[in-house]
Write a structure and sequence with these properties.
Radius of gyration: 24 Å
Number of strands: 5
Largest sheet: 5 strands, mixed
Shape: globular
Structural class: mainly alpha
Helix content: 55-70%
Oligomer: single chain
Strand content: 5-15%
Distance between the termini: 72 Å
């Protein structure tokens, strides 16, 4: 089967999959975070700055490249939700196509490569991501594209194109920053010429940093440091850098030893949930890559191992399975290709023990069995994940979107709303938002202590800023929810207990400062 057929096949498969998920998603998104991107993008598109509230810039987005892309979609003359979901479907196809190229680059023939592209285009997490309104497939595409260029140029000089793509990928998700140093570690392993590699690394590092410096400058001026403000709000002292700066030596030890082990365990679960057949074969595939010798790249091996180790050390906030793998999506193409390499190696080992005639007779049947098992596993998982996607969209619509619309209808336009969920509430209410978690309001972080219930710290901050309304999940702030002498309940929305929303009930309170 030639390239035109493969491209058409991958386009049809990924388009159909994304279309099915989009159809069952009732025009919404499965995470409130998607509405954060849309709110930021809408403000950018109308010239109101890069912030949750108009003309209040803040270091909020960990994926500024995606936010800017969504801002461009806001300028198009059709519904923004439909535009974002269409972009997601196109990115899904692009990821399937890029994986097809990656599989061929690593040595798989066209049949195996087509299966790799199909797996990525039909992986439940990627179908979910295509209709999530999130940056997931953008950074996965850029990271995989950089990997393909790295492999293509490995026998020659380092690829400037790969460096550029990994820089853009980092603008779409900070976790992609691991690719450049691991790529040069890969080249050092292959050549043994550390001086030459070091010189090349510094040159490429300058190109890598060039697009990132304006982002870091913006973060520094409108957040808590050079990294996105979400890092300081979510990771804080749990990472090695934060633990060292706080003098928390036990926490530093956990970041070096415990958290990487936890991340490895979750990565194994991530691989199994994606495709158990490929997960079982992946260790054999990694071994096959490692046995190829100095002349071949080990970057896939280094990234698969480096992700849990570096994430555990530097940013141990959740793991590979969190929210459908939104922080580990670039591993899906890598694990897919490695799993298929492992299956091919298993066939080669089996073939060595068979006569030529028997091996030839079995080959077609075994290849067909691999396709059935691998794709069949995906179909079974999609039946469940599709149902979960629809439920997640419904929960966000019934809770966050509904609360935003209630605030728009029942509060004055100059009202200030403090809340722990800032996406749909900001987008649909049109009210000024104070973020008590600290993602969009960095000032609150000074009132929050690691490992201590946030209620009293948030209360001290609320006494300072005096919002008119407070909207919270009571299970997040049980003490605040009981302070009816300060916060009078006005409206509540509830969803089922098995929810993506973080809590089954959200309540809007009127504060004493509004009277």
């Amino acid at each position: 089967m030639g390239p035109p057929f493969a491209v058409l096949f991958l386009a049809l498969a990924s388009g159909l999959g994304a279309g099915v998920y989009g159809a069952i998603g009732s025009g919404g998104f499965p995470l409130d975070d998607a509405w954060i991107h849309l709110q930021l993008a809408r403000n950018i598109s109308v010239g109101a700055g890069f912030g949750l509230n108009p003309h209040e810039p803040v270091s909020l987005s960990t994926a500024p490249l995606w936010t800017l892309l969504v801002a461009l979609l806001h300028l198009l003359p059709w519904d923004i939700v439909a535009g974002v979901k269409t972009a997601g479907a196109l990115l899904l196809f692009a990821n399937a196509l890029m994986t097809w190229w990656l599989a061929q680059r690593i040595g798989l023939d066209r049949g195996w490569a087509l299966l790799a592209g199909l797996v990525v285009g039909l992986t439940p997490r990627f179908l979910w991501a295509s209709q999530s309104g999130m940056e997931i497939l953008l950074y996965a595409l850029l990271a995989t594209g950089g990997l393909v260029l790295h492999l293509r140029a490995f026998a020659a000089a380092p690829s400037w194109g790969a460096t550029a793509l990994w820089s853009l990928a980092t603008l779409a998700r900070p976790e992609c920053a691991i690719f450049l140093p691991l790529a040069f570690a890969d080249r050092w392993r292959a050549t043994g010429q550390w001086r030459r590699v070091a010189v090349d690394f510094w040159r490429h590092l300058l190109l890598f940093l060039l697009p990132l410096l304006p982002w870091a400058y913006f973060n520094y001026n409108y957040g808590s440091g050079v990294l996105p403000n979400t890092y300081y709000a979510k990771v804080g002292a749990f990472g090695l850098l934060g633990a060292l700066s706080a003098g928390a030596w036990m926490q530093a030890g956990a970041a070096l030893v415990l958290y990487p082990l936890e991340q490895m365990q979750e990565l194994a679960r991530f691989a199994v949930e994606n495709n158990i057949v490929l997960a079982v074969a992946a260790p054999l595939g990694l071994l096959a890559v490692a046995k190829r010798g100095r002349e071949e790249s080990w970057l896939i091996l280094l990234v698969v191992i480096g992700f849990p180790v570096l994430r555990g050390i530097l940013a141990p906030f959740k793991g590979a399975t969190f929210q459908q793998g939104r922080y580990a999506a670039y591993l899906v193409p890598l694990l897919t290709v490695i799993g298929l390499v492992g299956l091919r190696c298993a066939w080669q080992l089996l073939r060595e023990g068979l006569s030529y005639g028997v091996a030839r007779r079995w080959r077609r049947g075994l290849v067909g069995l691999v396709w059935v098992l691998v794709l069949g596993n995906l179909m079974v998982m999609n039946a469940r994940q599709g149902s979960d996607y629809a439920a997640h969209v419904a929960d966000i619509d019934r809770m966050h979107v509904a609360m935003g619309r209630w605030l728009a209808a029942n509060t004055t336009t100059d009202a200030v709303v403090a809340t722990n969920d800032i996406g749909a509430i900001a987008y649909f209410s049109g009210r000024r938002i104070v973020d008590i978690v600290g993602l969009a309001t960095p000032e609150v972080l000074a009132y929050l202590a690691p490992g201590v219930a946030a209620d009293l710290g948030v209360l001290r901050f609320l006494e300072k800023v005096q919002p008119d309304y407070l909207v919270i999940l009571p299970n997040w702030y049980p003490q605040l929810a009981e302070m009816h002498y300060l916060f009078r309940p006005l409206h509540a929305v509830e969803v089922g207990p098995e929810t993506i929303a973080g809590g089954a009930k959200m309540v809007a309170y009127k504060t004493v400062w509004a009277d």
